[in-house]
Design goal:
It contains five helices and nine strands; from the N terminus they run E-E-E-H-E-H-E-H-E-H-E-E-H-E. It is of the alpha/beta class. The mean pLDDT is 89.
Amino acid sequence: MGILIDKTADCPYVNFSENGQLEIEGRSITEDVFSFWQPLIDWIAVYIKTPAEKTVLNVYLEYSNSSTNKYLNEILKHVESLKKKGKEVQIIWRYEEDDESILMLGQDLQALTTISMEFVEVEVEKNKTRKIKIKSKKSGNEATITYKYWEAIVRNGHGEEYVVLEENLG
């Protein structure tokens, strides 16, 4: 049986399947990393005993904290053991265009394994590069920010603290 976890504001979407498709996507900033990541490590430890002929690990992070990075490294070590057993392994590390920190994280993690990764730059959707003008209900301050940043504010539960003054600014 696989694992399917829906994305939240502080935990990524995860879809681990016995058919060898392993996906992690989103933000990982949970304070209780053990409760979130340890079941994934445990699942992979069982999976590698009777894996699919090909395992594809697809990672697309927006952000991760240092505790998460330790678990990502552990996941990569398990996947690396599959290659040592003669199984086909593919790791795809996706990152948003101009997101140097996530790209560098992937490169750093790759350096700790013998598996090469495929790095794929993902174009940011146009609506995430457009601007929006907001006003703080508390302070009255106004700011022009990107939709991407606005989405993060809303996702983190702070959208009600602002009034949207203008949208679709170029």
